[in-house]
Structures are given as structure tokens and as C-alpha cells.
Q: What sequence folds into this?
């Protein structure tokens, strides 16, 4: 394949968000080049669990985006299958539902209040008794005080999903280039983005999408348009392959509070699920330690404790692997999706923290709608770039 | 207290422990085995006693005398705590050094004891394991690594089969064959994929004189093995390899073929041999995970070290196969240098161990020549068929690996693993990593990153471990690099 | 010293590994894979490959080449992935 010298849009970052944006843009007829300084789908995307969750979001703009995304994922997979065939469209999509479990009585009330609020905006959230919860998940602890079942929660394998989306971009005449670092932007006389410097050369383009995930802040500084996206580290434990132990995505009720927290300190709450290959994934931790990759055994220890508390049978099961990643965090916990008011032609799509896999299709769709001047299904104003939490001071 | 941790009690680790101990440093020597010696000095596990343990010295000698003996007879010095049956599952960087997490007790059991030992200096001597190249049928019971055949013969007194074919490359195949004979097996054939050893076997001293293997102190030892194989009329064929194993539940026969210079099978040269076992060894892969956890720089698959065996990570020293495949003598010399340097790092008065350093230099020259004589050639990829398993744990076939690479354009290990499944099983890519990386044309380095270095059960992980000898951060501030 | 292998009593010596005991009895495989149900036994012999998994006293995923037998051990073949009992 010949290398693209000019493109309509250059997407920087070949993770799930960059892939989804590139897919949506190429579906709109634009010629897209995706560049990544590393290998495609090798960063935050490879360090995720594949959450497509409604359950962990309170009513608000992020839940709106999640609801749209949850509807789009199966459609998108179906269209990829028609376009690329079964094998490439294989993303281990499992609409298996979620079960949020309160293990002490104090957590039951707040969980019920959240479920009620979610129901009001159309999310299916079914309160179940402890007996019902244990019937759904036979290995669940006997200490269940209350639980809510979310049939809409789903899971997929993020690297399969991202590589499938990127395959579609290539099939439509676009290109995905790994090992290509974008350094800075090139502007035309009117101050509009006209290209991007990648590696040794410059690629002319009409628009650039900053989809660098946790590194979006870094790139924005290099581009001269700083936005407030910070890394938040998360670790996951992987067990040896097991027979079916966990049917749904099962997590402790305190997870919702941890997701919404801005705390710098370590937060750990159990999120337990089986994967298609039989392993059980145990999350989740959230910690703001910059880009420090050093192993912290205390984090693993607390993950192990929280998982065994939910599923006592796991006590004797070997952990064979741990992996981690940096998630793109914004101070107001909302993604940044839109054009930068400082530099026309520079777009941002980042800040999804641990929800990027789930929110990817709606993010791609919203970005493409905005860029192509179409009406969008969700209100874009809450994700706009020029909000105080994202741009501390607007520079020109 | 001056204390270092040495991980691995093979030739390198034992030498490091002794070298540091003889400079008055307390040493914690951690190893997975029940007895000292590692894979090389594999001791008979069923026999009583441990020939390297301090108790092997007569009990009436004084400590000073026993230290002297230890120097001479390669018996562990008394101020070394040997922690046997221990799995180091994580190394965690802490202020001024590292915290080593281990579980001690029956392998993979539930009741192992947790320990966490801190030290300002670490010596990593985790060794290497055999590389097995895949071929159709290599996942049948009856196909073993050469190291397995060796370990079972020497450590357990068991031959892995009655009629065994040994296939691979390098001089290590000879002691493996000899051990098998010693354990009662019949060697059907030794197949050496490269050419060099042939001339060596028939005219060992002439080959030595040619220069490539000049200075090999093991010449006599190998000549003994060669003599033993000749006495047992073992056919030894160069440029030959087992390219397929046949059988339904177990190996019943194998196909061997002549190889060209790139290891492509020569058409028409295939022969079928009746055999119930195959021992395969195509060089060695270093156990890098702990070195990577300690953030040591790795280049071309080996830990980079300076003249004092210091790695790029302050206070972390490496010795033995981790730094390059070179055999037991070189490993022991490197261990002696590393142990002395680690002792100096924690404040002991240490003169440069110049003799050991000289042995390291000459040993490395020899190792380089040896490794150049026994490379792995790319033709092995042609031994595989579409349905040949490449990742044994996850049962990933060559066809599905290629599909992942081609259809999804995967260019690096992390994504390759998640897309193909190769390397995601319990062995964490230890067996398949290098092979898969070569098949997929990606950098193999990513496979060796394993922050959990050995499986640990969730109940064990959940348990708090008391930290032994926590580092005094103020004291550690004075630590300097070791330069001679 | 005695252990049981799949219910049958076996005479063993101190220091023997589970793999050493089984191979000495001529048993080549004691596990099946979870994908294809293929037979597996010892492969690397030094704890690296995790092919030789076996169940000891109700605990699965024990490497037979690393585990030294203890008096009365109940050793069982492992079929695919199993949970501790």
C-alpha cells in the first residue's frame, strides 16, 4: 500500500478512541490517516478490561453518551462483519449484563437511589434480592445485602475491537501508520490547521484529531493548545483459566463512588468478570501517580482482597498476570470531544478515563457529526473543549 | 546491617552468595529448588543431603576454617541463608533498593509462607531455560525439552523414554544424551541441526585447534561424553533435526530430515525413526522477568552489565545466563564478580576480584564463539504446518497466528498476544514468546515482561507479609555505584 | 512413603517430584488441555512451561515437575481448567 502524503484528517493515536473516530470519519467519506508513535492498540486500549457499562454512570452527559454508545456497538460490529467478514469483526462481544453488589447494608440505600435515577432516564436497572443475586451468580459471597442487575452492561475485547475498526479504515482507502510520532501542527496563513509534522516529514491535512488518550495533554502542549488531560493508573489481575465462575460483570457497589472520585490516593473496588478464554479479570484500581509504571504490590493485594470478598471461591485460584494502564482523566470526569477554539482544524477526543471502550462508537459518531456539520444525537456542549476544567486559561 | 539478596542458586548465584559472604555481608540466597546447584549442578533429589550446603563441611571446623573451605570446595559460606523451595513472585522498587516478595513451601501449594525481604543490593542469577522449536506433533506427550530429560535423569533417576531421539543444537546435547544413557534409555540418534560439532566429535582436538572453540576448558568433559556416545554406538548426525513427531496419545515415531544451511529440510531426506521420546534443545532463553521488574536495561535479549556485573539499575547486579549464554564456569565467574560488587555496594571493603574478572572476559570470548557456531536458523519456520500449535498453553495454531498478523496488521507484542492469544496462558509466553515473535516478525522483548514472575494464589496475594530488614532510606542515600 | 494417584496407592520415595513418580510408573500424560482436550504431561521439566499441571489435595494447577511428594498426597489428573475443591 502506498503511503498517504495528504489526508482529509490525520488522527493521532491508534487506540480505541482514535480507531473509532477514524472509522466514523472514513464512513463519512473522508480520507483518514491514523498515526501512532507505538503500535496500534498497544497502549491504554491493551490495558483495559473491555467495559461497555451503563451501570456505573449517574444520569448526566456521560450516561447519555454511554446509552448511545451501547446502542451503536452491536450495529457497528454488524456493519464491520458485512464489510470485512466474520474473522476481522470478531471482537468477543458479550452482552452479558452487570450485577452490582452491596455487601453491607449501608450500601444498599445509595445503590437503590442510583438505580432509581438511572431508570428515570431509561436505563434498565432491576433491584434483586440477595437470593436472586446468588441464583444469578452461584459463586457469589453469602454476604450479599442487596444487588442491582443491569441487563444492558456488556463487554468486548478492546484490542480486537480497535484493530477491527482500523481494518475498516484501511479497507476504505485510509492508512494506519505505527511507529510514527506526531510532533507539532502546521498552520496556514489564516491560522487554521494545514498539516501535522510526523516523524521526519509533514502530512498536509484539513483537520487533526488528538486521540492520544492519557498522552493527549502532552500532545496538546506540543500543538500549542494545552488541555487538562492527566493519567490515572489502573491495574488488573488475571487469573489462570477457570471453568465458568462469573457469568456477568460483577462489581461492588463502592465502584461507582471510586469512578467518580477525584482523589489522588489509591482507590480499589472489586470488578470481577470472566473472559472468553476462561481467565477472570479482577479490577479495579485508580491512582494518580503520573506515568510511573513501577509495580506496587499493595495495589495488587487490595485487588485480591476485594475479589475474594465478592467470590470466596477465587481464594485458591492462581493469578498469572497483572497488567496496567494509564487512563486519560479530566478534572470534571467528562470526555473532551470537539474542536479547539484556539486553532480551527484541531480536534480533541480524549479524557474518557476507564470508559473509553464503551464510549468509543458514540465519541467517533459525535466527532464525525460535528466535523461534517451534521446534527448529533447527543448534546455536544458538555464535552466541548472550552470549558473551565479542560482549558484553565484560553490562550490565543 | 549489610545484607544482600541473591536470587537463583545455580553456579552464578552460589558464587555470588559466597563472594559477598566472604566479605562479611549477610546473604539471603533464594531458590526454587529444594537443593543448591540449579539446573547445571542438578543434585539427585532422592539422595539424602546437599553437597553444597554448609552442613556438608565437617561440623568440627571453625567458622574461619569453613569459610576457607567454602572458598575451595564450593560449599556455601555459613553467613548465607539459603531459602529453598521459594518462588520469587515480584520485585518491587522501594526507596534506596528493592523489596523481594517470595512464597516458601511446596510448589504451587496453598500453604506457602509469605516473606518480603528488602535489600539495597540484589544479585539476579535466575538463569535460562531450553528453547524448544515447534514442529508438527511437538505437543504430544513424549516430546520433552533437553533440560527436562536432563533434570529427570539427574534429579529423579528417571529416563523420559526407552528409545529417545535427541534433537537440537549445541554441545549441551551431548551431556543430555549421556544422562539419558545413564538413566537407562537407548539413544536412537542425536540430531544436531548445525554442522560444527561433527568435526569436533571425530577430531575434538583438531577442532579445538581451528580456533573457533579455542580455549574451551570443557574440551575434556565433552570428549568424555563423545566417547560414551561412541561406546553406546549412538548415531550422531549433523545438519539434521526432528521435524515431526507421530502418535495418537503419545510419541510413537518421529521424522528426521537433513537440513540445508538455513535449516530448510532437504526434500527426500526424511527418515522415520521408531522412538517413544524426543528431547529437544535449541539453545537457551534467559529468565528475564525479575531483571525487567528491577528495571534493568535489556538489549538483544540479555541484561546489559558493566565490568562489575552492575546493571543499569542502581544496586542491581546480574550474573550467569541472564547476561549471555555462556555455561556454568562463566556463570560462576560472573557470580563471584557480582557478589563482590554487591558487597561493596552495601559498604564492605572489597578489592576488585581481578582474577574472576579476567575469567569473565575470556569466558565471554569463548561464549561468543560458541554461540556463533550454534545459531538458530530461520528454516525451522518451514517445519510447521497450518495446524501446528505454536502456543502450547492457549493451543494457538500457526494459521491463527498468521491470521492475526495479516488481517489485523498487528505490529507489537502486546497487541499480538491479545489478538492471537499466543503467550496469554499460564507460561506467559516463556515457551512460545521467541518463536511467535520470529513467526510474526515483531520484537520479542515484550514477551519477557511479567510483573508477576510466578503464579500466586489470590489468598496468598491477599495476605500481608511482614517486611524483613527494611531499608534505612538515610543510609541508602550514601550508596554509590561500583567502579573498579 | 505412600501417595494416591487417581485413587490408586503408589509407593514413593522422599525427594521425588510428582512428575518423577508418574514417569517412573510409565505414565506419560496426566492432564488434558481445555481447548482441544489433548493429552499433556511433562515438557520442560523445570517449572517453566506449565504443561504438567496436576491436582494435589484438591488444589489444581500444580506443576508436577516442581511439586515434591509428601506422605498421603492425593494426586489427581486435571481435565482442562478446574476450580479448587
A:
Amino acid at each position: 500500500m502506498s503511503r498517504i502524503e495528504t489526508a482529509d484528517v490525520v488522527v493521532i493515536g491508534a487506540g480505541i478512541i482514535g480507531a473509532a473516530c477514524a472509522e466514523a470519519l472514513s464512513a463519512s467519506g473522508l480520507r483518514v490517516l491514523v498515526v501512532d508513535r507505538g503500535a496500534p492498540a498497544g497502549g491504554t486500549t491493551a490495558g483495559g478490561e473491555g467495559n461497555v457499562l451503563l451501570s456505573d454512570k449517574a444520569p448526566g452527559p456521560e450516561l447519555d453518551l454511554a446509552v448511545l454508545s451501547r446502542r451503536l456497538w452491536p450495529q457497528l460490529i454488524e456493519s464491520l462483519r458485512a464489510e470485512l467478514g466474520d474473522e476481522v469483526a470478531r471482537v468477543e462481544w458479550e452482552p452479558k449484563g452487570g450485577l452490582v453488589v452491596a455487601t453491607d447494608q449501608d450500601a444498599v440505600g445509595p445503590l437503590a437511589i442510583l438505580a432509581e435515577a438511572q431508570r428515570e432516564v431509561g436505563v434498565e436497572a432491576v433491584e434483586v434480592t440477595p437470593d436472586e443475586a446468588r441464583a444469578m451468580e452461584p459463586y457469589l459471597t453469602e454476604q450479599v445485602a442487596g444487588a442491582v442487575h443491569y441487563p444492558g452492561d456488556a463487554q468486548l475485547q478492546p484490542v480486537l475491537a480497535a484493530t477491527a475498526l482500523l481494518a475498516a479504515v484501511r479497507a476504505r482507502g485510509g492508512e494506519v501508520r505505527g511507529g510514527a510520532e506526531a510532533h507539532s501542527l502546521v498552520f496556514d496563513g489564516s491560522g487554521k490547521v494545514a498539516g501535522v509534522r510526523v516523524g521526519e516529514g509533514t502530512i498536509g491535512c484539513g483537520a487533526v484529531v488528538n486521540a492520544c488518550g492519557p498522552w493527549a495533554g502532552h500532545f496538546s502542549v506540543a500543538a500549542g493548545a494545552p488541555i487538562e488531560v492527566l493519567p490515572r493508573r489502573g491495574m488488573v489481575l488475571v487469573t489462570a483459566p477457570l471453568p465458568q465462575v462469573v457469568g456477568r460483570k460483577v462489581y461492588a457497589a463502592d465502584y461507582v463512588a471510586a469512578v467518580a472520585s477525584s482523589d489522588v490516593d489509591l482507590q480499589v473496588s472489586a470488578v470481577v468478570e470472566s473472559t472468553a478464554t476462561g481467565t477472570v479479570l479482577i479490577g479495579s484500581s485508580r491512582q494518580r501517580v503520573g506515568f510511573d509504571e513501577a509495580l506496587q504490590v499493595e495495589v495488587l493485594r487490595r485487588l485480591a482482597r476485594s475479589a475474594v470478598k465478592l467470590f470466596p471461591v477465587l481464594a485458591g485460584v492462581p493469578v498469572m498476570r497483572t497488567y496496567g494502564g494509564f487512563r486519560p482523566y479530566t478534572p470534571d470526569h467528562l470526555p473532551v470531544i470537539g474542536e479547539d477554539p484556539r486553532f480551527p482544524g484541531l480536534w480533541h477526543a480524549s479524557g474518557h478515563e476507564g470508559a473509553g471502550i464503551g464510549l468509543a462508537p458514540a465519541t467517533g459518531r459525535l466527532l464525525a457529526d460535528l466535523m461534517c456539520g451534521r446534527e448529533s444525537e447527543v448534546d455536544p456542549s458538555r464535552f466541548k473543549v472550552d470549558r473551565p476544567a479542560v482549558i484553565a486559561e484560553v490562550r490565543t | 546491617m549489610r545484607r544482600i539478596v541473591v536470587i537463583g542458586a545455580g553456579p552464578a548465584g552460589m558464587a555470588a552468595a559466597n563472594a559477598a559472604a566472604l566479605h562479611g555481608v549477610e546473604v539471603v540466597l533464594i531458590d526454587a529448588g529444594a537443593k543448591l546447584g540449579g539446573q547445571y549442578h542438578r543434585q539427585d533429589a532422592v539422595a539424602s543431603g546437599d553437597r553444597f550446603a554448609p552442613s556438608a563441611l565437617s561440623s568440627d571446623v571453625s567458622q574461619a576454617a569453613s569459610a576457607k573451605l567454602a572458598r575451595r570446595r564450593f560449599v556455601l559460606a555459613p553467613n548465607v541463608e539459603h531459602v529453598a523451595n521459594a518462588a520469587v513472585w515480584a520485585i518491587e522498587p522501594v526507596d534506596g533498593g528493592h523489596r523481594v516478595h517470595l512464597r516458601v513451601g511446596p510448589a504451587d501449594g496453598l500453604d506457602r509462607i509469605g516473606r518480603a525481604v528488602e535489600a539495597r543490593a540484589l544479585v539476579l542469577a535466575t538463569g535460562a531455560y531450553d528453547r524448544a522449536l515447534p514442529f508438527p506433533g511437538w505437543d504430544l506427550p513424549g516430546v520433552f525439552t533437553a533440560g527436562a530429560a536432563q533434570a529427570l535423569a539427574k534429579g529423579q533417576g528417571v529416563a523420559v523414554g526407552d528409545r529417545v531421539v535427541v534433537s537440537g543444537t549445541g554441545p549441551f546435547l551431548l551431556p543430555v544424551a549421556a544422562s539419558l544413557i545413564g538413566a537407562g534409555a537407548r539413544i536412537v540418534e542425536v540430531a544436531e541441526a548445525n554442522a560444527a560439532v561433527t568435526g569436533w566429535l571425530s577430531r575434538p582436538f583438531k577442532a579445538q585447534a581451528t580456533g573457533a572453540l579455542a580455549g574451551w576448558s570443557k574440551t575434556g568433559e565433552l570428549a568424555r561424553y563423545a566417547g560414551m556416545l561412541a561406546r553406546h554406538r549412538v548415531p550422531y548426525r549433523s545438519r539434521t533435526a526432528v521435524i515431526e513427531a507421530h502418535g495418537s496419545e503419545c510419541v510413537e515415531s518421529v521424522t528426521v530430515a537433513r537440513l540445508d544451511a538455513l535449516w530448510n529440510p532437504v526434500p527426500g531426506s526424511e527418515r522415520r525413526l521408531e522412538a517413544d521420546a524426543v528431547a529437544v534443545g535449541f539453545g537457551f532463553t534467559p529468565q528475564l522477568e525479575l531483571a525487567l521488574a528491577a528495571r534493568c536495561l535489556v538489549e538483544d535479549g540479555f541484561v546489559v552489565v558493566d565490568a562489575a556485573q552492575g546493571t543499569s539499575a542502581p544496586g542491581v547486579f546480574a550474573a550467569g545466563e541472564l547476561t549471555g549464554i555462556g555455561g556454568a564456569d562463566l556463570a560462576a565467574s560472573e557470580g563471584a564478580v557480582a557478589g563482590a560488587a554487591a558487597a561493596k555496594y552495601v559498604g564492605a571493603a572489597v578489592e576488585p576480584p581481578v582474577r574472576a574478572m579476567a575469567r569473565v572476559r575470556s569466558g565471554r570470548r569463548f561464549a561468543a564463539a560458541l554461540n556463533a557456531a550454534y545459531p538458530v536458523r530461520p528454516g525451522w519456520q518451514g517445519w510447521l504446518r497450518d495446524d501446528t500449535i505454536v502456543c502450547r498453553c492457549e493451543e494457538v495454531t500457526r494459521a491463527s497466528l498468521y491470521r492475526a498478523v495479516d488481517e489485523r496488521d498487528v505490529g507489537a507484542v502486546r497487541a499480538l498476544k491479545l489478538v492471537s492469544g499466543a503467550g496469554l496462558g499460564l507460561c506467559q509466553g516463556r515457551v512460545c514468546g521467541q518463536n511467535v515473535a520470529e513467526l510474526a516478525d515483531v520484537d520479542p522483548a515484550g514477551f519477557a515482561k511479567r510483573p508477576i514472575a510466578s503464579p500466586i494464589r489470590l489468598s496468598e496475594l491477599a495476605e500481608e507479609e511482614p517486611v524483613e530488614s527494611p531499608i534505612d532510606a538515610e543510609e541508602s542515600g550514601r550508596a554509590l555505584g561500583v567502579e573498579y | 512413603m505412600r501417595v494416591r494417584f487417581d485413587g490408586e496407592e503408589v509407593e514413593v520415595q522422599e525427594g521425588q517430584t510428582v512428575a518423577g513418580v508418574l514417569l517412573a510408573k510409565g505414565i506419560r500424560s496426566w492432564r488434558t488441555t481445555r481447548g482441544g482436550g489433548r493429552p499433556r504431561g511433562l515438557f520442560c521439566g523445570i517449572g517453566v512451561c506449565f504443561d504438567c499441571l496436576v491436582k494435589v489435595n484438591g488444589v489444581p494447577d500444580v506443576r508436577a515437575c516442581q511439586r515434591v511428594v509428601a506422605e498421603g498426597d492425593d494426586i489427581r489428573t486435571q481435565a482442562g481448567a478446574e476450580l479448587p475443591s
Chain A touches chain B through 46 residues (CB under 8 Å). The longest strand of chain A covers residues 318-329. Chain A has a mean pLDDT of 94. Residues 61-84 of chain A form the longest helix (24 residues).
